[in-house]
Amino acid sequence: MAKSVKPAWLRRPIPNAAALADMKGLMDGLQLHTVCESAHCPNQGDCFARKTATFMILGDVCTRNCRFCAVKHGQPGPPDAHEPEHIVSAVTKLGLKYVVVTSVTRDDLPDGGAYQFAEVVEAIRAYDPEIATEVLIPDFQGSLSALEVVIAGRPSVLNHNVETVPRLYPQVRPQADYERSVHLLAQAKSMGGGILTKSGLMVGLGEQYEEIIKVMEDLRAVDCDFLTIGQYLQPAKDRHEVVRFVPPEEFEEYKKAGLAMGFLGVASAPYVRSSFQADKMFGNNREK
Q: Which helix (H) or strand (E) segment is 288 a member of?
């Protein structure tokens, strides 16, 4: 049964209302979305106050209905051809030097939205080739041709989250496949010409410690470079319940284990999310 009272290590100050309003105004004005808002990220107040956000392309309606996610699901509209230039405008106004771009899953599109990812990355590079980009992609239903399109855009980091342990996929990610996700990361590494890869996990969904370690080993087996691990928080009553609040000490154990396995960077703490201080993780390893 889910614990209704958050432990002390999950209590946070109220987000800066002005920072939230400023970022929302900017995104609304450019007809853009952030996963920070759509996924109810608990870090959005801090990130928005630092003038950073994770852009979510291809609309704000997902074709899948994962049981952990707060993003709306249903039938999305067509891609916005002006989205790349709108993101460049936001990057300019925010003064970003590291840009994280994700999307809803678009199983309705022939390429899964791969072309839009590439267009966004190329538009950012055309604006300023010194800006690093990280793309957090869906699984494209296993399409290697779609993955090739994204990689051809030459992002700095390719991120794809496995999210949870294989045993929980039927409950948590019924439209996804663990082996397919790991294979995607393997293929990205083999076709990416030295591209850095990244993945992420949530804990507190009912997994066991040993299962997390096994997933980490699976990711290292395909040469995944970066890993994020954070506490799952139930975003709505109809979403999967929190089975356990994982203490900070256990997150630290995961971090030590991951670094010992050979990950270049591991961010593991209760409030870590996929793009948590992504610029620092990349920057710390840029010259390696």
A: none
Specify the pLDDT at position 4: 56
Q: Distance between CA atoms of 33 and 38, rounded to whole angstroms? A: 8
Q: Give the pLDDT of residue 182.
A: 98
Is 222 inside a domain boundary?
Answer: yes
Domain extent at residue 236:
11-283
Q: How far apart are CA 158 and CA 24, in angstroms?
A: 26
Residues of the chain under the 50 pLDDT cut? 1-2, 288
Q: How many whole angstroms separate alpha carbon 149 and alpha carbon 143?
A: 10
The answer to the question of residue 288 being in a domain is: no
pTM value is: 0.94
Query: How many domains in the chain?
Result: 1
Please report, for the domain that includes residue 42, its CATH number.
3.20.20.70
